[in-house]
Each structure stands twice: as structure tokens, then as C-alpha cells.
């Protein structure tokens, strides 16, 4: 059953349209989801960068002797050059995707004393109990060295230990984005983190990580995906239903043509015709072509039937005459007309040969491609004929020499049969054509009969005896042979008033 359905044009068209629309929807849906996700992530990144720069600005203007603090609703971390957390928002319980996973800031060192101030403790510590200050100097040198080293890198990677070279209070123009998660006040969410560097006097280069939640992006993508998963099947169902209905309506005339053709085949009534819709489209043209084919088939069948009937009628006369003569000769040998019997036999033989040639022509027998001289052939066929004058040039043609010779014989026989005294044959070249003209000085052919005479078994002079007029196949055979050779055969009026038959065949060099 499924194979039968898929064998239907309507089913295949519906399936193809549904698949095409489904593919288009999948591609469009994926593009929409990717674009939506990209835009929302970009918006989250912008919000995170805005927060990170705001926090960096607050840190940059915080006095060196004041501890750093961060107040924000989203996760924020401030780390130093050694990836140590020195400030973070309250209620931060867990974080990933930033420079460090720590959530509790380390104890910040005491702000450095103002220049020139001394205390005993400081003096003792500075001299390390022996008047030496190398310990503090070394620490200062180490700090300066770390800052310089960090300043020598561009800081593109937030996980990199280095940072861009910045002046005190300056915020890096470059922002690095990462994705991660964070847990605030017991709620875990995905975040887009932005990292910026800021140079803080007395603290070195710090990195601020600020996150913006991706819940809106995830919610929007899920909502869009849900809408697509629900809407796309419904849309595909609508497309399939509409395509099925439209295709059924479009193919309804085709079904009418098919059913009518089936009825014509069953009844063998070639006079019937298929209905032609008023759509003026391909289906209407199909119906018109089908009717033209039926008309041509009907004409061919009728012609074939008429040909069989005419052939039977023409064969019956010589056979009946020959039988009568033989029966008389059997009963009365002295009354046997041998000459008449021979004539009837020859006539029967010629008629059978004509019918065989017509059958081969109707079967589409190819004429061949033998080259021969048409002028020489015309001179040979006219040789020995009384009252026939030949003026022939040498013109080469290709085809069946025997069939073309048969055409010339038929034309000469017809001309001599109707001429009063003279028949003229001319052969020449006109452009790419080899032309044979056979003219007589008889009564000619009426203009109304100039196409009819080429039909089979047609004799214009019905009063003429069959012995004189033949079976009416000569001119029909001549035209069929001319057409099979790519040429034409027409009849007109000769200068002498009789008939002028003109045979044109393609010439070859």
C-alpha cells in the first residue's frame, strides 16, 4: 500500500514539498537560535563589561590606605597579579571560569605608612635588629620587579599572570570574556564574565572579574526552541495538507484524460477525444497533444483500412481475370488466351511489387546513402521510350538508386500515358537541390486535383480502363520515396499546357 501511495504524483509532490519546507525551517530555525543566542550573550557580555569597568573605576579612586570592597548583585572578583583574591561580593559561595576559584578574600596588608614617619617598631623592623634595612629594600625591589614584569605583557588572557602596562589609576581598554558559573546566596547560575585590568597605586595591577547572568539568554533560547518544536510540525502539517489539495486539484484534469484514454482503449473508438481543461497550462497542452495524436492515429488507421480494402479490390480483378482464362483454357484449350494470361500475370506481379514497396516505406525503411548520378539514371530510364526527350546534367545525389529509379519510371509512365505526342525530361542543379522535371503536352492536372493525385489508388479518369490507367499507386509511391529521401514531388502546369512533375532531391558534392 505504501508503495502504491509513493507511486502517486500527488504523494510524491506532497512529500517533496514537505521535505523542502522542513529543511528550510530547520536551517532557518538554527540560524534564528544561533543569532538569538549570540545577541543575548553579547548583551550579557556588555553588561558584564560595564559592571567590571564600574568596579575598576571605584578601585582606581579608592585611597591606598583604605581596604577594597565590592558591592554588587552579580558575582565580582578582584585579584592581584599573583591570582590572589583580594576582594569579592558578599554571599559568593562558589565560582568558576575566572582567574581563581576563591570566594573569600585574603587579608589585605596594612596600607603603607606616609613618607618620613617612623615608629620604634618600624625602626626595629627596618633594621632587623642589627641596623640593616636590606629586608625591606628587598621586598620593595621584589614588588617593583613584579609590577614591571606584569606591565611588560599585554594581558589578553585573564588567566595570564602578566598585565598590560598601565599608569596608576588607568583602566585597560582591552576586555576578555569567559563563561562560567557562580553560586550567590545559595542560587547557582551561568554567567558571562568580563575581565579588565586596572593599575592601583600601592597595590599594583589588579584584575576585575564581573559576571552577567545568562539566564535570560537560556530562557529565550529555550522558549524559541519550544515554539519551534511545537510550531514547525504544525506548519509542516499545513504545508502537506495544502500541497495535497492543490496537487489533487491540479491533477484532476490528468485523471480525466487518463480515464478517457482507458475508455478509448477499451472501446477501440478512435473518434473519441479527451477533455481539454480551460486552464491554458501544461495539462491543457497535454490534452490538446493527446487529441492530435488520436486524430493522427485515427487517420492512419482509416488510411490503413482503406489501403487494405483498395488493395484487395485491385488484386481481385487480375486474379479473377487470370482464373477465368485458365478455366476456359482447361475446358477448351483452343480458346486459351495466352497473351491475356501473361498480361494479367505481369499486372498482378507489378501490383504486388507496388504493395510490397509501399509496405516497406510505411515501415520506415531507410533509403541508404549510396551516391549516384541522377542525370545518368534519368537517361537510362528514358532510353528506348518513344517521344521522350532528355536534357540531363550530371548531378550527384545519395540514397537508394533503385527507389529513385522507380520514381523516374512512374513519372515517365504517367507522362506517356497522358501526353499527346511529346514528353520532356530535364535534370539540373538549383542551389543545393538536384531537380528532375518531367513535362508532357497533354491536358494537364486541374489545380483542385494536384494533391489528390498523390493519394493511393486514386485515378482521376475513372472511365479509363485498369489496363491503361494502372492501379493508382505510381504517383503515391513516387511521392513517398521523394519524402523518404528528404525531397519533394509536386505537380504544376507545363509550358506546353500539360502536366509538369518536379522532383527535388538534396544534391551532394
Account of the 3D structure:
- With 509 residues, this protein is α+β, with helices and mostly antiparallel strands.
- The chain has three domains: 1-108 and 123-264, no CATH class; 270-365, Signal transduction histidine kinase, dimerisation/phosphotransfer (DHp) domain (Helix Hairpins, Orthogonal Bundle); 367-506, Heat Shock Protein 90 (2-Layer Sandwich).
- Helices cover 50% and strands 17% of the residues.
- A six-stranded antiparallel β-sheet has the order 2-1-6-5-4-3. A five-stranded mixed β-sheet has the order 8-10-11-13-12.
- α2 packs antiparallel against α5, α6 packs antiparallel against α7 (338-362) and α8 (374-382) crosses α9.
- The longest helix has 53 residues, at 215-267.
- The two termini are 64 Å apart.
- Which regions contain 5 or more consecutive residues with pLDDT less than 50? 113-158, 462-467
With helices defined by DSSP (H or I, 4 residues minimum), what is the helix count?
A: 11
* Arithmetic mean of pLDDT: 81
What is the total tally of β strands? 13
Run of helices and strands: HHEEEHHEEEHHHEHEEHEEHHEE
- N→C terminal distance: 64 Å
Structural class: alpha+beta
Helix content: 40-55%
Q: How would the global form be characterised?
A: rod-shaped
List the domain count as a whole number: 3
Radius of gyration: 55 Å
Beta-strand share of residues: 15-25%
Major beta sheet, strand line-up: 2-1-6-5-4-3
Sheet with most strands: 6 strands, antiparallel
- Say what oligomer this is: single chain
Name its key features.
509 residues; alpha+beta; Helix Hairpins; Heat Shock Protein 90; 5-stranded mixed beta sheet; 11 helices; 13 strands; 50% helix; rod-shaped
Amino acid at each position: 500500500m505504501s508503495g502504491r501511495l509513493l507511486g502517486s504524483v500527488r504523494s510524491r509532490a506532497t512529500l517533496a514539498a514537505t521535505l523542502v519546507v522542513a529543511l528550510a525551517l530547520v536551517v532557518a530555525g538554527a540560524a534564528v537560535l544561533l543569532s538569538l543566542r549570540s545577541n543575548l550573550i553579547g548583551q550579557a557580555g556588555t553588561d558584564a563589561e560595564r559592571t567590571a569597568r564600574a568596579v575598576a573605576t571605584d578601585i582606581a579612586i579608592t585611597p591606598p590606605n583604605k581596604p577594597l570592597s565590592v558591592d554588587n548583585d552579580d558575582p565580582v572578583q578582584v585579584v592581584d597579579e599573583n591570582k590572589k583574591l583580594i576582594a569579592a561580593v558578599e554571599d559568593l559561595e562558589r565560582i568558576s571560569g575566572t582567574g581563581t576559584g576563591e570566594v573569600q578574600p585574603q587579608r589585605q596588608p596594612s596600607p603603607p605608612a606616609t613618607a618620613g614617619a617612623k615608629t620604634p617598631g618600624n625602626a626595629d623592623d627596618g633594621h632587623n635588629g642589627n641596623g640593616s634595612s636590606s629586608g625591606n629594600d628587598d621586598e620593595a625591589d621584589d614588588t617593583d620587579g613584579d609590577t614591571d614584569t606584569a606591565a611588560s605583557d599585554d594581558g589578553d588572557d585573564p588567566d595570564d599572570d602578566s598585565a598590560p602596562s598601565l599608569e596608576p589609576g588607568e583602566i585597560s581598554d582591552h576586555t576578555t570574556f569567559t563563561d562560567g558559573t557562580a553560586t550567590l546566596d545559595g542560587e547557582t547560575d551561568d554567567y558571562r564574565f568580563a575581565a579588565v585590568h586596572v593599575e592601583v597605586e600601592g597595590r599594583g595591577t589588579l584584575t576585575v572579574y564581573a559576571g552577567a547572568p545568562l539566564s535570560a539568554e537560556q530562557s529565550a533560547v529555550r522558549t524559541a526552541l519550544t515554539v519551534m518544536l511545537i510550531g514547525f510540525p504544525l506548519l509542516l502539517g499545513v504545508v502537506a495538507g495544502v500541497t495535497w489539495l492543490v496537487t489533487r486539484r491540479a491533477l484532476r484534469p490528468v485523471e480525466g484524460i487518463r480515464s478517457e484514454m482507458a475508455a478509448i482503449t477499451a472501446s477501440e473508438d478512435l473518434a473519441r477525444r479527451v477533455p481539454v481543461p480551460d486552464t491554458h497550462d501544461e495539462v491543457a497542452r497535454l490534452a490538446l497533444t493527446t487529441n492530435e495524436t488520436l486524430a493522427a492515429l485515427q487517420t492512419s488507421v482509416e488510411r490503413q483500412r482503406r489501403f487494405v480494402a483498395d488493395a484487395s479490390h485491385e488484386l481481385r480483378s487480375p486474379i479473377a481475370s487470370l482464373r477465368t482464362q485458365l478455366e476456359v483454357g482447361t475446358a477448351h484449350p483452343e480458346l486459351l488466351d495466352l497473351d491475356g494470361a501473361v498480361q494479367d500475370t505481369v499486372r498482378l506481379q507489378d501490383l504486388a511489387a507496388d504493395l510490397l514497396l509501399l509496405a516497406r516505406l510505411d515501415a520506415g525503411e531507410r533509403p541508404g546513402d549510396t551516391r549516384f548520378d541522377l542525370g545518368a539514371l534519368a537517361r537510362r530510364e528514358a532510353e528506348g521510350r518513344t517521344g521522350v526527350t532528355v536534357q540531363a546534367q550530371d548531378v550527384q545525389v545519395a540514397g537508394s538508386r533503385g527507389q529513385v529509379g522507380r520514381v523516374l519510371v512512374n513519372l515517365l509512365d504517367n507522362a506517356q500515358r497522358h501526353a499527346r505526342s511529346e514528353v520532356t525530361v530535364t535534370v539540373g542543379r538549383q542551389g543545393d537541390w538536384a531537380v528532375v522535371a518531367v513535362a508532357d503536352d497533354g491536358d494537364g492536372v486541374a489545380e483542385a486535383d494536384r494533391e489528390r493525385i498523390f493519394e493511393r489508388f486514386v485515378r482521376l479518369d475513372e472511365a479509363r480502363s485498369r489496363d491503361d490507367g494502372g492501379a493508382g499507386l505510381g504517383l503515391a509511391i513516387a511521392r513517398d520515396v521523394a519524402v523518404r529521401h528528404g525531397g519533394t514531388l509536386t505537380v504544376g502546369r507545363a509550358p506546353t499546357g500539360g502536366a509538369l512533375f518536379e522532383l527535388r532531391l538534396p544534391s551532394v558534392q
